[in-house]
Amino acid sequence: MADLGSCKIVKKELHVPTLEEVKNIFLKALKENFEDVEISVVDCPDLTEEPFTLSAPGLGGRMNIVEVGGPPYLLPLVNREKVYDLQSLLKDLKYGDRAFAAGAGAGPWPYINQNCEMMMNVMIDSSKIKNGTRIASVKNDDQTCLLETLKGNETRFALLANLFLCEGIPGRVLKVHVKTRVGKKDFIATMQQALAEHYVDNLVGLGGTFVIKQGKAKQHVMPDFSKTPLNTVEDLDKWLHFYEMSAPLVAVGTFVSAETDLDLRVQHFHSFSHHGEGGHYHIDTTPNDVEYLGYFNVGEVLYRVDQPPNPLQFGKD
After folding, report:
1. Backbone dihedral angles phi then psi of residue 259, each to the nearest 5 degrees
2. Which in 9, 38, 183, 205 has the greatest CB count within 10 A?
3. Which numeric CATH code is attached to 9-305?
4. Residue 187 to residue 208: CA distance in whole angstroms
5. What is the pLDDT of residues 57-105, one digit of tens each?
6. Residue closest to 186 by CA, chosen among 251, 248, 123
7. What is the DSSP string of 9-74?
8. First to last CA, the chain
9. H or E stretch including 110?
10. CA distances from 185 to 29, 75, 127, 192 (A)
């Protein structure tokens, strides 16, 4: 397991616009990409309830964007030593006794002795753990996707992760509700690129959750680690397993306005379901029928943990 105590952690204060300002930035971009758009600043609903079924009710309290590791620990060949633990990370960040972490990453391969995708969804309150984290893997016999929930005390992950870290308390959030995609950008890319165009000189980050209420989506699931080097985008795409998955799908993750010198991943969301499907979100495949409902909050601090020394030019899509 990676020794977080020896991992470099960079803390960066983010530019923190008001939710109202972000709403106005997103509105124009969303209207260019979706036929029906409703966006507002609201009190966060109880996200432990359906359809979200998260492990904490809200997205408020000490909001952080946390990026750990990165694709260079997976490509061209895996570094199996890069296994982290959320509980150890929280201690190193001196975060406190109450923490909710939600986001996308690689799951703890030692847990199933196989590479897997992770949809982190865990609430830790004074060492009491409510764990709704899922992992998705590829079954070797028929190449189907297998989705399962981690046991309560299993808070490890591997290689890379993009997490929204907060206290999980209710508060004001940005509500985004769109239907019928008429443009070419996916739901998150629409908002991420609007951020990038507006905040040229400031780093802004958001995290949260969205549900695809209707329609289907293109998602991938990593199979077990490749035994041959994956040196190109073509190699990577041949190795990954792509699926068309059906709503409802609940996604968690983060997006930021720019990569910067911290080699950040500008968007990363993974989804899970209650019907056995889950993976890395790319885009909906039924634009005429799709419906998204999301709740997001603005990060105040970004933590870059164990940044790989040699960045890659692919692997972040």
Report:
1. -70, -40
2. 205
3. 3.30.1330.80
4. 13
5. 999 999 999 999 999 999 999 999 999 999 999 999 999 899 999 999 9
6. 251
7. EEEEEPP---HHHHHHHHHHHHHHHEEEEEEEEEEPP-TTSTTT--SSS-SBSS-EEEEEE-GGGT
8. 26
9. helix 109-112
10. 10, 26, 41, 10
pTM exceeds 0.70: yes
How many whole angstroms separate alpha carbon 304 and alpha carbon 11?
7
Neighbouring CB atoms inside 10 A of 41's CB total 14
130: number of CA atoms within 13 Å, CB side? 15
pLDDT at 25 over 60: yes
What residue spans define the domains of the chain?
9-305
Token pair in block for residue 72: 């260079």
Cβ 118 vs Cβ 105: under 8 Å: yes
Which residue reads 């907060």 in tokens? 166
Q: CA 315 to CA 317: how far, in whole Å?
A: 6
Cβ atoms within 10 Å of 153's Cβ, excluding its own:
9
**CA dist., res. 104 & res. 309, Å (int):** 21
Peptide bond just before 51 cis, omega within 30 deg: yes
- Provide the token pair at 235: 């190699």
Count of alpha carbons within 13 angstroms of residue 148, beta-carbon side: 13
Q: Which amino acid is at 4?
A: L
